[in-house]
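Posting for a labmate who doesn't have an account.
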Amino acid sequence: MKKYLGIVLSMLVFGLVSCSDGAAASSIPAQHWKEWTVRIQTHPNPPLAGMCEIVVIITGPHGKPGGDLIVSLRGMDSEPWMQAIEDGYIGVYRRAVDVGENKTGVIQVHIQQGTEQKTLLFPVTLAVG
C-alpha cells in the first residue's frame, strides 16, 4: 500500500511540475512615499506584453491601509493616466494597463493625497510568450 501511495504521489508531483509554464513569478520591490509603503503586483506574474492587471497595495505605519488617496497608473509615457479603482477601504487599488511590447517596462504609479502628489516608477521584466 505504501509503495502504491508513493507512486501516486510521485505521479501527481510530476504532473503538477509538467503543467507549469516554467516562468518564475517576479517580485517587485516596495517603494516609499511619505509614511506610505507602496507595493505592486501584476496579473499575470510575470507580466505579459500588452494589457495586464496591476494591483497597488498601500500601507502606512503598523500596516494601516492607505485611504484618502487617488491612485493613477500607466505603463508607458505615451499612455494617458488611468485612475485605479479602490478595492474597498483596505489600501488596495487596481487597474488594467498596457505594459508595452518590450522585454522590460516600467509601471508608473501616481499617488495624490490632497495637494501633495508623487509618481513612483516600478521596473518590470515581461515574460516571453
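Reply:
Got it, the C-alpha cells are right above this. Residues 5-22 have pLDDT under 50 and may be disordered.
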